[in-house]
Design brief:
- The model has no long low-confidence stretch (mean pLDDT 91).
- A hairpin with a 5-residue loop joins strand 1 and strand 2.
- The chain is built from 7 helices and 2 strands.
- It has a two-stranded antiparallel sheet.
- With 139 residues, it is mainly alpha-helical.
- It has a domain of 57 residues: Multidrug-efflux Transporter Regulator, Chain: A, Domain 2 (Orthogonal Bundle), CATH 1.10.1660.
- This is Cu(I)-responsive transcriptional regulator.
- It is found in: Cytoplasm.
- InterPro entries: CueR, DNA-bd_dom_put_sf, MerR-type_HTH_dom, MerR_fam, Tscrpt_reg_MerR_DNA-bd.
Length: 139
């Protein structure tokens, strides 16, 4: 199948498939005229990559997972460890986002949201530097 059909069937944009080829994650055959020819095994790799990326695995993690996917003698413990590490990363990101949400929520609560010019959100973002801008305008 050509790259367009591989794109359609894998759910990946053509540009992404070309990128995956450039970095060695997929290696489609080439016809005599130079066109890529994707086999069913290539399509399986593309689907695998699409799913792994949608779950947040990095390119390097995908490379490692693909290696394990193709190794019929793999230990499932290896795959499990990679996934557990990803879960820890997701938990860390969730904690960061929850903290960010708390700060933003506190800023919104502190803001009157009316016609006044004073704004706690701007004050926080500027770190108190907004008076420097006011002073610059007066000179």
């Amino acid at each position: 199948m050509n790259i367009g059909a591989a794109s359609e069937q894998s759910g990946l944009p053509v540009k992404t498939i070309r990128y995956y080829e450039d970095i060695g994650l997929v290696r489609p055959a080439r016809s005599e005229n130079g066109y890529r020819e994707f086999l069913d095994s290539d399509l399986q790799r593309l689907k695998f990559l699409q799913r792994a990326r949608s779950l947040g695995f990095s390119i390097e993690e995908c490379r490692e997972l693909l290696s394990l996917y193709e190794d019929r003698n793999r230990a499932s413990a290896d795959v499990r460890e990679i996934t557990k590490t990803k879960i820890k990363e997701v938990d860390r990101k969730i904690a960061e986002l929850q903290s960010l949400k708390r700060v933003l929520s506190d800023l919104v609560k502190a803001c009157h949201g009316d016609d006044r010019t004073d704004c706690p959100i701007i004050d926080d973002l500027s770190g108190g530097l907004d008076t420097a801008f006011e002073d610059r305008g007066k000179s």
